[in-house]
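Annex B. Sample input.
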Amino acid sequence: MPLDAKSSDRLGSLRFPLIVGVVFIHAYATEVRLSGGTVGTAQPAFLLDFLRNLLSQGIARIAVPTFFLMSGYFFFLGFSWSVQAYKSKLLSRGRTLLIPYVFWNFCGLMAIWTAQSLPATRPFFSGSMPDIPSLGAWERIDAMIGWTRLPILYQFWFIRDLMVLVLLAPLVYGALRLLPGATIAAVIIAWFFEVWPLKMPTIEALAFFLIGAGCGLSGRSLFALDRLGFLISIVYLIILVSDTLSKGAPFNPYLHKAGILVGIPCALFLTQLVVDRPRLKETLSRLGRSSFFVFAAHEPLMTGVRKIAYTRLVPSTEWSVLALYFAIPSIVILLLVLLHTVLSLLFPRLVSVITGGR
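Annex B, continued. Sample output.
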């Protein structure tokens, strides 16, 4: 069953806001580590701590699960098992996932290798990142593909896990056909209580991919809870604030995950406000074209910008750190959107390949 135009527009309107959320997750730090020491503050004051937890560890944390949910949904929507159908899906995901994954991580490896080899830029590395020049050939390949560690561009763990889930799609299909409710309940419980032995795919990836896959296979709309949208939004707001104020409490991990479970349908519900506003819908549609490019290129760019900003400005007050917390990711996003626009005009085929045709 094909996706209707309005639902497609609603899901499409989420792409850019969710990527902004991913960038702000990675903007959480209020200090930078250099080879000569640390700059910034490890213990921010209440206002800064509240705002960054509210945004980076609260609202933004629904982004990755929502992407997995949508990925599972689109993969299995209208899917009927056959070897040929699965082969077609594999070929499609090779273009949209594998090629960009290899390209961006290879470029990241080369860029970091070069920066770590130059005396002028080597001091900006604290030792938390692998020292590429000293690695052996296999270790460099591993750093690029992320087999035993995070890939060198760590945000690509999402794409890595998604590729693993695509390979496991026959098992997912079988489990959801035989025991759909039990399968989804089991993985949600495993995710909620963090009971999972594998490094990849992560239980978060598996759980939300399966939920989306279940909806896709059954033809159930991702917007099925819209009728409860107002109530869900109120509940999410309460959980969000409670989660933000209770960081460090023993119960907080469970409250946080409850917030994700409620926050996703809340975000889906709010998309109807977008499609009812043509100008906003068109703006998000245009920005959505740069979403994958922003995702792929924002790190290590943002880390580099943060280190330069902190060493040049040496923020020492809550307000200066707060200003940088908002300014750095905003500048990085703006620059990458502009760069994507220019590159799309100059090299449209190349941009299409490295962003998976998005």
